[in-house]
Amino acid sequence: MDYFQHFEQLLAFHSAPTLAGIKTGSLISINKQKLKNFQQIKQKYSKCLKCSNVYMFTVSDSTNYRLLLIYNKDKLRQLLSQKSIQEFLQSYGYKDFTNILACLRYLKIRMLLQKGFPHEIGIFLGYPLADVKGFIKNNGQNFKCCGPWKVYADLAAAEKLFSQYAQCSQRFCKCLANGFSLEDIIGQAV
């Protein structure tokens, strides 16, 4: 399997809901030994993703792994414009909510300083604010349900989204297995 095909499979499996426009963001961990020529790969897929307003941002880069945030720019901008989200993120030091890249760069700094995942990363992934706050308050315990995130508030809404995300990922992976390119799939999804 070539590097481009491997990257397409990673995107389809981990980021299909973001690529399809139903989720704000997704994380992909890339093993640098298994996925070489990343700059070529990024250049090729950045063009394809921009057509659906989806972008890649490296939130962490270590010797062996690169952690990418795949995000829908419109959805993230919409989230960052909400007063409740801004107040929450301000408590962690975020400032300029009109500048998405400034927020992402600050998230990257927070990841580096914390040597792990700062809890507010859930906002950038599109998790409900009540669930992000619930996770923090409960130290990741006492949740109602666990899926792509731990649910503390609206269980019915979360389960509906979990189902949509799973169906979307299955559809993207099935299309790739049937010989479609990621560009073809994204074009159909938009």
From TrEMBL:
The UniProt entry, under InterPro entries, shows: DUF3793 (IPR024523)
The organism's place on the tree of life at top rank: Bacteria
Query: What Pfam families has UniProt attached to this entry?
Result: DUF3793
Protein name per the record: DUF3793 domain-containing protein
- Organism in which the protein naturally occurs: Pectinatus brassicae
